[in-house]
């Protein structure tokens, strides 16, 4: 006697074949992976092309091209005096799309290791560059100085290629009046990373411009080396810079000396101005050089009449 077997149930009939589905998914995942890898590779190649063509990585939108660096001494100077300096710098930066880096001398005292506190300007510049890695130029300006011609952007006043070419002082003594080491006669604007002036005795780093890059990091590291800070130069970081520039052609080859009144005009009370280095109405900067080291002078009193002139210009605009 035979019994009819029940019909077999095809459990998979309503659904697609599992091996086929798995194969399709693998193909889709593989395609997505290839597409993702291709996009990453294209992005990487484009970033490398941009880097090789400009020498820097892509600059984020809104990055200021110029940073003004000022080191303040809140323990020594009155708040009123410091606020005047800050207002002067902030107005200038706002006009031209720059930014400010305000530091305190006390921030760098631990790293000075007993050296004169004036050395603090060097790590302050390095600090500013680390804080603004995509900005191109850093303009250090001593606390005891005012920007008197705020409508003048630094680009057209100093950094423009044609303008800088007209200002570079070639084949002149690095340390006046008669240093045997002279600036190179073949310098071109594209060679320059450090722009500074001299007075009647030295290069004076109370006002200078440094371009972001490997050279600037090298210079600041060398300048701040303990060997120089502990050498007891009579004028500390000023004489150290004189020495470095005269003995290191690498530095001299990236240096532009410009006329003093371009970025470092001395007030009438300041001794040591170079030839045609004293402030005249309309100049970009006035600097009260030495007002903080001469007991017969008072920085705040010397600054006030010029600050009032500057403030009057703002009201009349």
Automatic annotation (TrEMBL):
Presence of the UniProt keyword Transferase in the record: yes
Any one GO CC term of the record: mannan polymerase complex
InterPro entries, alphabetized: Glyco_trans_34, Nucleotide-diphossugar_trans
Biological process, per Gene Ontology: protein N-linked glycosylation
Transmembrane spans: 29-51
Xref: Pfam families: Glyco_transf_34
Molecular function via GO: alpha-1,6-mannosyltransferase activity
Highest taxon, organism lineage: Eukaryota
Keywords: Glycosyltransferase, Membrane, Transferase, Transmembrane, Transmembrane helix
Membership in a protein family: Belongs to the glycosyltransferase 34 family.
Record protein name field: Alpha-1,6-mannosyltransferase subunit
Organism: Aspergillus nanangensis
